[in-house]
Amino acid sequence: MTTNDAAAPAPSPASSSLANVSRRGLFALAGAASALAATPAGARTWGSGFTHSVASGEPQGTSVLLWTRFVADADTVLEWEVSETADFTRIASAGKATASASRDWCAKAIANGLEPDRWYYYRFTAPGGTVSDIGRTRTLPEGPVQKFRLAVFSCSNFGFGWFNSYAHAAEANDCDLAVHLGDYIYEYGAGNYPSAGQADPGRDLEPDNEIVTLADYRTRYATYRADPDLRRLHQSLPMIAVWDDHESANDSWTDGAQNHQPDSEGPWDVRKAIAKRVYREWMPVSDEPYAAYDIGDLATIFRLDTRLEGRNEQLDLGTVLEGASDPEAALAALVKFREGDWADPSRQLLGEAQEQWLAEGLAASTARGATWQVLAQQVLMGNLRSPAALAEQAGGSLPDFIRQRMMAAAMASRVGLPLNMDAWDGYPAARERVFKAALEADANLLVLAGDTHNAWAFDLDHAGAKVGVEVGVQGTTSPGFESYLSFVPPADLANALVAENAQLQWADTAQRGYMTVELTPARATTEFRFVDTIRTRSTRLAGTKRVSVGAGARTLEV
Q1: What DSSP designation does 551 have?
Q2: Which residues are CB-neighbours of 461 under 8 A, at least 6 positions away?
Q3: Helix axis angle, 214-225 to 268-282, nearest 10°
Q4: Rounded Cα distance, 321 and 342, in Å
Q5: pLDDT digits (tens, 9 = 90+) for 338-348
């Protein structure tokens, strides 16, 4: 596909209403406040003027957030306009926003006074008359709504290949809103996920070290946001975005992360604050950690934080099995763990405040008559255990550490423990509280999940009651099970996973892409769109798969 970033995107037909600084130096400063105030002089600016096109997000019925970046010699006041027409002859809202060095030259504004359920065009103008790219955005509908379509993305690792999912979504032009479920960037340095052998030679990562400092995070976002297909997606659609772990560091939780070493990388609170700050600078998002969006009487979307607000540290099966001298001892340790730490009712994933907010929001959504209650969040909610046969198939063909992990997962499965302790499966009491709140609210729960890089479709149940359904989106570029379980044909793996897990109705573990979710008063339909390749720029699809659920059914049709 050929893209022209300066051109205004065409109206969508989706509905009748659519028209290098040292990475350690920062930690010599005292405390998070000092670290956040520092803007190293050597931080890269990526040119001058409007460097990274435009973006919009946080849509509501009468407002939307606008974003751009303008690099100058001093803080610059930009004018912005929102228009009903691409030629800007019918201005609907206007105002000013400041591009400041203190925010890495990123500027944001809230456009108010808009009409619900309308497409708009917007632009920024600099004092000298330079005009940004023209962006397209839209407000959310109010009142009766017959159809609304989401384009859902996750896990976009720059080094593995091209963002063809973004390109296809912009070209298809058939959605009302983009939803990004996290891992928008990755924190690793060059040669570490992807390895040198896995990396696409055309995708040079900057900075080439693991990002830790303020300058590091800013440069990494600038690298990602310079991608032409990501720019085009932001230019074409408003976005609701949530962070997952890699926007800070791998397997992050409230007080730490697997990929953060305080002895060499400084206090976690400093790094976490930097990660949050830069995310909010570079993304068209508010500073609220969680929020709700009403799509008329059709749906409420709840944007959740399952990473940094309230999550307790992840449990670890390897730790549970340490010292077990034989299989019987290992099984006994796993049973003790299952009945103890794993089931601990005090463990949190959302945190008490967010959990209460969600329960109240679910009840309010159904009380006002909304058909669907949609959770836009990061990690899988459905039960997922490892098929025991996988460990047997591995034989001696795998590295010892992978084979050991597979054996541990198989033993855990025998006693009813899940595969992934970093997902909701690792926080069963927290999940039960959410399910209970959904049932008490009589919600039509539709859960959107990212994180795993694979595609999933689950029925969700609690104590024999149907709760709702979950669709998990495959990675944009990040590899799935096929990358380390290559000894199992993908179809066989998917079938084994479905057979092992009663909630799981369908899975694809070998393809990249994105999904669309179409909501109507009668049905929610998810189309998994699989891109043909990520090694070259292309918008060709390899195939699609549709699953759906009827309103009130809480059971998928696959």
Answers
A1: T
A2: 467, 503
A3: 30
A4: 14
A5: 999 999 999 99
